[in-house]
Amino acid sequence: MHWWFPGNASSVGGKVDSLFYVILYITGAVFVLVEATLLVFLVRYRKRSGRTATYVEGSTRAEIIWTSIPAVILVSLAFVSQPLWSKIKDSDTYPRDATHLGLEAKQFEWHVTYPGPDGKLGTDDDFMKRDSIHLVVDRDYVLEMTSRDVVHSFFVPAFRLKQDIVPGMDIKLWVKPTLTGTFELACSELCGLGHYRMRGVVIVHTPADYAAWLVSQGEATPADSAAAASNSGMGTP
Amino acid sequence: MTATAGAALPGHAHADDRSFVRKYVFSTDHKIIGIQFLFLSLFFLLVGGLLAMGIRWQLGFPGQPMPLGGWLPQGVAPGGVVAPKTYIGLVTMHGTFMIFFAVMPLLVGVFANYLIPLKIGAPDMAFPRLNMWSFWLMIPSGLLMTASLFVLGGSAVAGWTVYAPLSNVPDYTGVHLGQQLWCVSIVIFGASSLLGSVNYITTVINLRAPGMTWFRLPLSVWALFITAVLAVLAVPVLAGAVIMLLFDQTIGTHFYLPAGGGQPLMWQHLFWFFGHPEVYILILPAMGIASDVIANGARKPIFGYASMVWAMVAIAFLGFVVWGHHMFQSGMNPTLASAFMVSTIVIAVPSAIKVFNWLGTLWRGSIHFTTPMLNALAFVSMFIIGGLSGIFMASTPVDMYIHGTYFIVAHIHYVLFGGSLFAIYAGIYFWFPKMFGKQLDERLGKVHFALTFVFYNLTFFPMHILGVGGEMRRIYDPTVYEYLRPMQPINVFITVSAFLLFTSQLVMAWNIVRTLARGKQADLNPWRDCGLEWTVASPPPHGNFATTPTVYHGPYEYSVPGAAEDFIPVNQPPAQVAETRR
Question: What is the mean pLDDT of residues B378-387?
Fold first, then answer.
């Protein structure tokens, strides 16, 4: 039975998961310690005949200890989180040779624009597919995301990636799939009556499969796609 | 200033020749207003709970006819099955009713009104008429919001956060009037909240009895005072934002529409600039109530009283600079998000201090497991879970995955139900004898507590698992997604638990009805509490105190060594204490 994270399939997912587990272990330990202390106190200091409460107003020393320890742990958590966050979301750090794809969200569809044989968006050979994003494994992509109507949110659980898509804004997100396969894409910001069925798929191919897919879509001849696959710098023919 | 508080109205306590309408309907008496708020907000708690049952039915049994669903109009539930539009309407209105019309008025409307004057030794609020208006504005506000459920096009469906442009362009949802009524209702609600808040602030500053210094104020009063300051600063921002939203919908402005030069993210910034302080408006009074009840139940002073006060002050300040953590994935500049991550992480420190101080209060106490105490202890233990789960979303990369999932739903319910509502229950059980002169049945109270505690955890804890599994909130049918289908048994389990949780609340309703009808007379001070409110009759007369009390002690003088009793009322003259010590 699958009752936990979906298997990770992106370059950043493993790091997000590790950070999650670090927080889970810290908070889990604190949870057990604090709730156990509470329970012990409730049993030990329950009302009994012949025992009275001890008049204690506080202890500065204890309070300094339990203020500073959480403060140190929490602030170090911020320092651990920051580099990973910048790597994922700061578009200045994205790989320069990444392939750019257009992703337009509208109620309740995903429109994916591919750059075509010239590798550039916004030219005549671009082509569009609905509700499916075809990618090549281990290749860097930057999704250029726009919305035609309301706020949507790009969420691929297997990639651990989420980014709101806001009308009037151009938002970029770096994606690097590390496993081949089909992964579900969900809208995770309430966008209207059909929000729940604004589902898409991300299909991650091997370079050869991707070339075959292009041919099957009539977007490339077998010769084109072989050339495109070998020019991609991925080292796979 | 404080010395003349009660003396300004000599003999007020005896004169009570008001007509029935002035006494119980358009009353200016803070106690009646508090009780009016109590019944109004319990009613909306019931409404919000019923809407939640509709949500849970659809999530547990998607596409199956809902019990009694056949009674609903075909447009709302064709063949008894909740329609997708109805579903997001339920989600929107559940959040709206619970936050604005149930939990906030329960905490502030009920306890600030009822407790502040009694606990500080004042005859009433500083502005009794404003106070009356504060309640009577809630009536049109609540009526408009309720009416919006029944208008053509249905209620608002954009979530309680009503994100633009889904909310301000009717064409995106097909909802016109429902969303407009939502806006008007919230603006009136804001006026009510402000009138109450200026009153609480003025009353605490000006009407404290002689000897009731700032650092002798019970933590409940401190919390309600700080909350009122938060409300005065945050609620106008909401009102302004909502008025602009209403203009966008009705008269063609473009405040939140990029086509006309507006910005959808501006709505989110304004909403959360209100929304995050609002979170603390919903938890600080709960912390205050729990502190009073825990000190009483443990028969010990609050451990580190001064740091409890400063922790609340710190939370209030920091509460205004953390709103961006709701927007980490919104498209806001990621560097700005990092700044909000730091402030968010810092605000966890004062929350931790409070938890440790409650534990310190229990340490070496003599714990009486009364119904209010059990609920207050549940508040502490559930707030620990809600606080710890918040750390996950404070970390921006982890938030990227769990944002907008059931992990968030679990978190908010651990804070708002596990935290606030258990403290509200503690407060209701604790002060019911003061409000009505009758004692709620302890046995029924404990049954209610046990059922609520168990089913509450069975309902909300598994939502963490759903969230880690990646289930989005606000989706009508999770089984649309293949990766969510294996988790559907969890949804069924949650739904069954939620129905049982809802049903368990009927025990409390029955307890209240039965006690009001034929409950046993409460003792003058049934919890052997130090507070000033227990030195007068239950319910207290109009004007509260026959003569202005003088305060000689701190708020939590329990188990003072050598004293005859294990509590010293705050107004007991020191000479008497010395005598009993001998």
Answer: 97
- The secondary structure of B45-104 as a DSSP string is HHHHHHHHHHHHHHHHSTTSPPTTGGGS-TTTSGGGPPPHHHHHHHHHHHHHIIIIIIIH
Cβ-contact B522, A18 below 8 angstroms: no
CA A185 → CA A163, B44, B516, distances in Å?
12, 37, 55
For residue B395, with 0-12 CB atoms within 10 Å meaning exposed, 13-18 middle and 19 or more buried, which class applies? buried
Residues in chain B with CB shorter than 8 Å from the CB of A92 are none
- A4 inside domain: no
Give residue A224's pLDDT.
67
Question: Alpha-carbon distance B380 to B293, whole Å?
Answer: 11
Q: Is the dihedral of CA A190, A192, A193, A197 positive or negative?
A: negative
Please tell me whether residues A127 and A188 are part of one structural domain: yes
How far A23 CA sits from the closest chain B CA (Å)?
6
The Cα–Cα gap between B526 and B218 comes to: 18
Residue B543 CB-half CA count within 13 A: 17
Give percent above pLDDT 70 in chain B.
96
Same domain, A22 and A81: yes
- In which region does residue B153 sit, left (phi positive, over 0), alpha (psi from -120 to 50) or beta (all else)? left
State the first-to-last Cα distance of chain B, in angstroms, to the nearest integer: 36
- Say yes or no: A81 and A119 in one domain: no
Q: Do B397 and A84 make contact, defined as CB atoms within 8 angstroms?
A: yes
What is the bridge-based pairing of β-strands A152-156 and A127-130? unpaired
Q: Which of A40, A48, A52 is the best mutation test for B, with the most CBs of B within 10 A?
A: A52
Distance CA A95, CA A90 (A): 11
Beta strands in B297-439 (DSSP E): none
For residue A35, the chain B residues in CB contact (below 8 A) are 381, 384
Which residues, including other chains, have CB under 8 Å from residue A129's CB and lie 6 or more apart? A111, A112, A114, A217
Q: Which residues of A touch B324 (CB under 8 A)?
A: none
Place of tokens 């050339």: A227
The token pair at B387 is: 């606080």
Tokens of B330: 């919104």
CATH code of residue A187: 2.60.40.420
Cβ contact, residue pair A162, B348, below 8 Å: no
Q: A157 lies in a domain?
A: yes
Q: In chain B, what are the domains?
A: 33-258+265-282 (1.20.210.10)
3 state SS of A111? strand
pLDDT beyond 60 at B7: no
How many pairs of residues across A and B have Cβ atoms under 8 Å apart? 287
Q: How many residues does chain A have?
A: 237
Q: Is A20 on the interface with B (CB under 8 A)?
A: yes
Q: Which of B267, B515, B556, B187 is nearest to A150 (CA)?
A: B267
pLDDT at B573 over 80: yes
Phi/psi at A134 (nearest 5 deg)? -100, 125
Q: What is the ipTM of this complex?
A: 0.94
- pLDDT for B1 equals 38
The answer to whether residues B101 and B142 touch, using CB atoms and an 8 Å cutoff, is yes
Q: Which structure tokens are listed for A44?
A: 């030990």
Query: Per-residue pLDDT tens for B37-60?
Result: 999 999 999 999 999 999 999 999
Same structural domain, A224 and A117: yes
Range of the domain at A124: 95-229
pLDDT at residue B575 above 90? Answer: no
Tell me whether A1 touches chain B (CB under 8 Å).
yes
The secondary structure element, H or E, covering residue A24 is helix A13-44
Q: Which amino acid is at B394?
A: A
